[in-house]
Amino acid sequence: MGLTQRRTNLTLGSIGSSMLYAVSTEMLYTISTGFVAFEATNLGPHSIFYGSTGVTANSGGLIIANGSKFWDSVVDNFQLYFVTIQSSGVTSNLVIQEYAGN
User: Fold this and answer.
1) Contact 30, 78 (CB under 8 A)
2) pTM of the predicted model as reported, rounded to 2 decimal places
3) Which of 29, 32, 48, 90 has its Cβ near the most Cβ atoms within 10 Å?
4) Tens place of pLDDT per residue across the chain (102 aa)
C-alpha cells in the first residue's frame, strides 16, 4: 500500500485558540478573525457530521470517533455546522484548534 501525503503551500504561523465543544444538536462554528486554518478533532465516542445548516448523516461530511479533519486557506467569515446524529441526548466532544498564517 502506498503512502498518502497532503501537500499545501500554506505556511502556518502561531497556534491560536483551542476550543472544546460538547456536540449533540446542530452547532455553528465561525473561525476567529485573523486565522486561516483550523483542525477539528472528534474525541468520540460518536461520529460527528459537518456541513451547512440542516446537516444530516446523509448530507454532511464525517469525522469518525477519535478522528480529525483539517481545513486550510479559509476566510475570516468561514462558518461550518457540526452535529452528532445518533439518538436523542447523544454527545461527542469536539476540539477545534485555530492557526494563524505567516
Assistant:
1) yes
2) 0.81
3) 48
4) 555 445 555 566 677 878 898 998 889 999 988 888 899 999 988 999 999 998 887 889 999 999 999 998 888 789 999 998 766 678 899 999 998 876
